[in-house]
Design brief:
The chain has 77 residues and is of the alpha+beta class. It contains 1 helix and 5 strands, in the order βββββα. The protein has a 5-stranded antiparallel sheet, covered by helices on one side. The longest helix is centred in the C-terminal third of the chain and has 17 residues. The chain starts with a strand and ends with a helix.
Length: 77
């Protein structure tokens, strides 16, 4: 996996898979309006990475939709 950090705070973790990417962000799933279909709340399940929002990216369209969420996680943390 790859952890992205700003100074000492990790805001995004990416795990490379054969079929795409799995990304975890430090965002509260409950506070998202219109969460994308490829996002899920993992706050109550075991998971890799940092944060409680998991994105399962399998195509370029989903990745483009993930960019604003990644940016929000960076700006908030």
């Amino acid at each position: 996996y790859i952890a992205y950090r700003d100074s000492k705070r990790t805001f995004c973790t990416v795990h490379l898979l054969q079929g795409g990417l799995r990304i975890w962000l430090k965002l509260d799933f409950q506070k998202l309006t219109n969460a994308p279909s490829f996002a899920r709340d993992v706050s109550h399940v075991g998971h890799w990475g940092v944060g409680d929002l998991e994105l399962q990216i399998t195509n370029a369209e989903q990745f483009a939709g993930a960019i604003p969420l990644i940016r929000r996680s960076f700006e908030q943390h």
